[in-house]
Sequence to fold (152 residues):
Amino acid sequence: MSPRKEPPCFTVADQWHSALERTALAAFAAELERDRPALERHFAALCTDGARAPGRLRRQLLARMDASPAALSGLRAGLQALDAGDLRTVWAGLDAPVAAWMARHDRLVPAGAADALMALRPDARMRTSDGGHASWLEDPQALAGFVEEVMA
Fold:
């Protein structure tokens, strides 16, 4: 078992309100087709909002994206999967321990999603960190400690 970063339903749905609006995801898809570098800058900014050193972390993310660019087809497929995916029943029915790493200032996966996850799986292990979506990059040891704690 490993902690998930993405929730079982990434976009707003019936009885799932702490999520990204579908229009925002559609805007990402349109921006990908129009101006991928602009999308990458936008995505990096969203990921680093709430970070201790957002500028440094944003540069780090952009450098990683530049050094190892994802295939355009993979990015398209990923956005489609996030838009269409609804794994709430899977999350609720897993016959295994589950855990999630959340961030208080995450602009992609709102911290409020933790309550919805706990409603689906009251036995889930949750950890909420300071920072945003990429907060674990600023303190990877905190995430590693959580993984070790969950796996023990």
Residues 1-5 have pLDDT under 50 and may be disordered. The longest strand covers residues 99-103. The two ends are 11 Å apart (CA to CA).
